[in-house]
Amino acid sequence: MKLESLDEMEEHQQFFCWSCGKQLQTVDEISQRICFECKKSLKGLNEEKVFFCWACGKRLLDMNEVAQGLCHSCKASIIRKIRPKRKKIFPYSE
């Protein structure tokens, strides 16, 4: 999310860090979608070893998540959306 100016933000809007969920306070944090504490901790990690979910942007921790590029919650959500809904079949009764 790139903010052009403060006028684009509504006063009642709240923004949260994609990594820890903490509410973001400054324009810099909001424009980068990450709090300063998480940004500092990510700088300490080697950029080549950090992977993120392509759907929500959350950092992937499990190798299964990294292999698929999705966190478990996004994968479950996608499966629920594409799986056909089962119709309840009621026997015909007179």
Structure description:
The chain is mainly alpha-helical. The protein is 34% helix and 4% strand. The chain is built from four helices and two strands, in the order ααββαα. The chain has a two-stranded antiparallel sheet. It is elongated, with a radius of gyration of 20 Å. It starts with 26 loop residues before the first helix and ends in a 12-residue tail after the last helix. Mean pLDDT is 78; it is low at 1-6.
Strands, helices and their partners?
Layout: H1 27-32, H2 36-44, E1 51-52, E2 59-60, H3 63-68, H4 72-82
Antiparallel strand pairs: 1-2
Number-wise, the strands total: 2
> Rounded to an integer, what's the Rg over CA atoms?
20 Å
Low-confidence stretches: 1-6
Per the principal axes of the C-alpha atoms, what is the gross shape? elongated
